[in-house]
Amino acid sequence: MYFLPIEAKIDVLKFLDFNQLFSVRLINWHFNALIEQYELDFARKKQSHFYISNLDEQEYELYRCKEEFLEEDVKEEKISFLKRIWNCCLKKSDKKIVKKREKCTCDRRFLNNEELEPFNFPISSQLFNKWQTVIDQQIPIYLDIRDHPVDEDIAIILIPDYQIFKRLAIKLPVFPKNIEEMKIIRCWFYRLFLCYFGTIEYCEFIFNPELVKLLFDDDDDNYLKLSSLLARCFCYCDKPKINAVKFIANYHIISNEGHLLLHFDPLPEDFKQYSKYLFKILTTGGFKMVQVIDRSLKDDALFYWIINHIETSTDLTKMVANMVLHFDGWSDLNLSERAENIVIDEGHIYYRLSNIHNSEMKYNVSISKRSFNGKVETVVIKKMWGDNVDYNIMY
Q1: Using alpha carbons only, how large is the chain's radius of gyration in Å?
Q2: Structural domain boundaries of the chain?
Q3: Using CA of residue 261, residue 46, residue 65, residue 144, what is the dihedral sign?
Q4: Which of 96, 182, 201, 269 has its CA 20 to 30 A from that of 32?
Q5: What's the rounded mean pLDDT across residues 66-93?
Q6: Which residues, other chains included, contact 19 with Cβ-Cβ below 8 Å and sequence gap of 6+?
Q7: Segment 37-52, tens digit of pLDDT
């Protein structure tokens, strides 16, 4: 394998899981350097659950270590005869007390910065200027999505893989005050981006995409993203922040068999931007299913963008396979001129669409309306080609 080109080595290493990659890194400096350089292209460390929460005093105490870290280990010290006489005169013991640090094994604990790799690394002048902007403008790490204050009580909570009773908390400076704190934040974010989570939930807070963009070099934007099988975002603010949807669109990857549940009610001034972010998620996400609940969007442009994309796109492989859209604000939705197999029932419209470049790429569209006002209740769009034909949409 030493004599293979870099591309071939990367293709082989992509078949290994995280633990196997770790073993390969230990072989020698060559493989360690290779995996470190391309680690974002390889398997990630699995974690079960991830969420961001506000810890009150009682919860904060739960995460304090319950063990005594420092233990005294009394050992006999080999000393010379003269030193024994000297110790005797000063009434000093001939035994040496050694204090050693034991690793914490609490079910709930805070992760500290000592568990990071060395974060005292040099940074470019461009990155320094970006970080100084964060400090000067007091840009927070988090956005609130449930009318909680953004303060220093916020923590990232991790549940390690297959350890449902364990909770690990990461406390980061919410408003970074210096370059040293920016380095710590960057290191923790990088560690999170190297993980693969079973479920990520945003119920109280979500990461601020403006800060994440300033945290790394511009070239890293395509690689540095959170990765999960399932993602849920519930935004119940009186004034929901459009940047919450922007973070999911730009910095979240959901695996091929994954699901996204998004509950977000944009403000009228954000309708257009919200539709653009959601369109990006739906047409480039590449995962199995998305369910969107929205009670306020009255602009139906998103629906027609999706229909046009199905009919005219030259690449539908990255489009979400199954979409369930609960949009209370939509009224009448016009049928496409290319609609086939049209069935109009009481309160329901069914039809099929095909792509103009490949007629085998077909999609079923189902529109359900409310009986009392005739407004759209649910739109379901299902891919009817490839391995998705027999998929049963549950919502």
Answers
A1: 27
A2: 1-43, 44-65+78-90+107-256, 277-388
A3: negative
A4: 182
A5: 51
A6: none
A7: 666 565 567 888 999 9
* Cβ-defined contacts of 158-166 (< 8 Å, 24+): 158/47, 158/49, 158/50, 159/47, 159/48, 159/49, 159/50, 160/47, 160/48, 161/46, 161/47, 161/48, 161/198, 162/48, 163/48, 164/48, 165/107, 166/107, 166/108
Extract the tokens encoding 253: 């990857």
Alpha carbons 209 and 214: distance in angstroms, whole number: 9
Could you give the CA distance from residue 193 to residue 372 in angstroms, rounded to a whole number?
47
Model pTM above 0.85:
no
SS3 381: strand
Give CA angle at 128 (212, 181), nearest 5°.
65
Measured CA to CA, the distance from residue 262 to residue 277 in angstroms comes to: 12
- Distance, CA of 23 to CA of 394 (rounded, Å): 41
pLDDT reported for residue 79 = 52
Indicate the class that CATH gives domain 277-388.
Answer: alpha beta
The distance between the two most distant Cα atoms of the chain, rounded to a whole number of Å, is: 104
Task: State the residue for tokens 């790799």.
Answer: 117
Distance CA 221, CA 253 (A): 12
In tens, the pLDDT along 117-175 reads 656 678 889 899 999 999 999 999 999 998 888 999 999 999 987 777 888 899 999 99
Q: Which residue has the higher pLDDT, 224 or 274?
A: 274
Digit-coded pLDDT (tens) for 270-301: 999 999 999 999 999 999 999 999 888 888 99
| DSSP state string for 234-301 | E---SS--THHHHHHHHHEEEEEEEEEEEE----GGGHHHHHHHHHHHHHH---SEEEEEESS---TH
Length of the chain: 395
